[in-house]
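## retry 2 of 3
previous attempt timed out at serialization; input unchanged, resubmitting
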Amino acid sequence: MTAGKSTQGYSTSTVLGRRLGGELTKLRTAAGLNQTQAGKALTASTTKVAKMEGGWVPMRDPDIRALCDLYGVHDPGTVGGLLELAKVDRERRKAKGWWDDYTIHGVMQEYVSLESAATTIKVWQPAFVPGLLQTPEYVRELRQGPTAEVAKSADPDEEFITARLTRQRRLSEDPPLSLHVVIYEAVLRNFPDGAATARGQLEHLVRMAELPSVTLQIFPLGGGTHPGLNGSFNIISFAAPGAMDVVYVEAPFVQRWVEGGEAAAAYDELFEKIAERSLSERESVSFLHKLLKEP
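## retry succeeded, writing output
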């Protein structure tokens, strides 16, 4: 786990690089081999293997295949998942994306680049409307209200809002990002600036729920307690869900990545349990309409 992107000399440790390196480390350990033995298979130094496993350098497909052969890993799904993750990591390292035109700081800069490459994202949000579903008015009030100390960064307000709206294009692009969101009911009863932002945001959620790429559910106040109430998290998938997921976890003043396979799987299991105890998609939309009718 880490708070974001790290640097070492001219190398860069990325979330996807560390995720890939972690999987290869696990496979090497299971095979009973050390980094020196892995290096010999690649005609490389132990230092290079350490950098590869630490996510410091992009990995080539031939190296991944050679290591899989050495570790006795021949399952097409496993090898294919590693190759796909390596491909996305290489593309993210060299790509200039829309986010480079905006002032986006810290871990969020890496998050939006991963969001742009993801195929599926699952979001649990107990405190705010998720960023991909926020209206400009909601964002503006969120950054000016009592939560400003948590939500506001050094980014200028209007630039921040424009960047957030640009992120939302992923939901209508071809192919679109598949988004499954579960929102705690309390979020929908506690808007920044109250009724001034509530109606527009609720109407927007209804419209977004109609998109084929969006699954929207509401976790009711009477749904009971669960560990997810401690903070929000986003599960980001780049190929088959669950294969090579990374998880972005957020709490007040703290953001971190969960890159380990077992830890990421635990978050996915938690998300599924939360979704099972939530209103169905149809019930959630009906609930939004009910809220719109309330005075």
